[in-house]
Structures are given as structure tokens and as C-alpha cells.
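Hey forum,

I'm writing up a methods section and want to include a predicted complex as supplementary material. The small molecule is zinc ion. I've pasted the protein sequence and the SMILES. Can someone with a working setup run it? I'll credit the forum in the acknowledgements.
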Amino acid sequence: MKAAFYRGNKTFTIEAPPEQPVNADDVKIEVAYCGICGTDMHVYHGVMDERITHNRVIGHEMSGRILEVGTNVNDLKAGDPVVVRPLVACGECAACKNGYSHVCKQLTFLGLDSHGAFKRLHY
Ligand SMILES: [Zn+2]
Ligand SMILES: [Zn+2]
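Reply by user p_vandermeer:
Happy to help. C-alpha cells for the complex are below, copy them as they are.
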């Protein structure tokens, strides 16, 4: 599996990321498709350089299949198709409590503000 690493100055490199163990509450996904959204374009133009660091894998809107599950994951299994929801809301602020978690005051983005851990939501 390869990924796009942001190197700064409108430069990306395509490389295989280092293997990481699957933590107990996490899953490993084989990415099938990854979108390039407006946020990724902001990264490309360098306007988010203070928020993210160089050498980060960019791309947070993806789908794929589960490759491996952590020991605490009981409701998903290898082979399950998944779509990643990259928004991590606090669940406590007024926006979250009124059903508007997409405008949470503490909203973070998987892949921009964090590498991994986020709440799984079921619809
Ligand atoms: Zn996006
Ligand atoms: Zn919130």
C-alpha cells in the first residue's frame, strides 16, 4: 500500500508508509479510493503548513476494506467494506448536542490534526 506524503512547497511523494501495529480499538483499512477535497488543496497551496507538519500522509476522505481489527473490535471483521468519516467531534458542545457535529467548536480532522484514533459512528 502506498500513500501521498506532503513534503511542503507544493510537493508530494508517493511512498509506502512504515508498518504500524493495529492498536486494540483500531482497524487497519486497505484503501480502495481516496478523494482530494478542498482541504487537501489548501494543504497543497501551503496555507495549512502551521496546522500540519511536513512528511504527513494527506488524504482523509476514503473508502476501502478492513484488513485487520484490534483485539477490542467485535463489530467489524476483515473484508468488511467501510467509509471513513474523518471528522472527530467532541460530542459535548452545543453544536454537537443539537445534531450539528460537523460544526463542532473542537472539530478535528483525521489525517490533519491526528493520525488515527477517532470515534466510530454507526448509521
Ligand atoms: Zn475533506
Ligand atoms: Zn462538539
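Some notes you might quote in the supplement: Confidence is low (pLDDT under 50) at residues 116-123. Residues 37, 39, 60-61 surround zinc ion (ligand 1) (CB under 6 Å).
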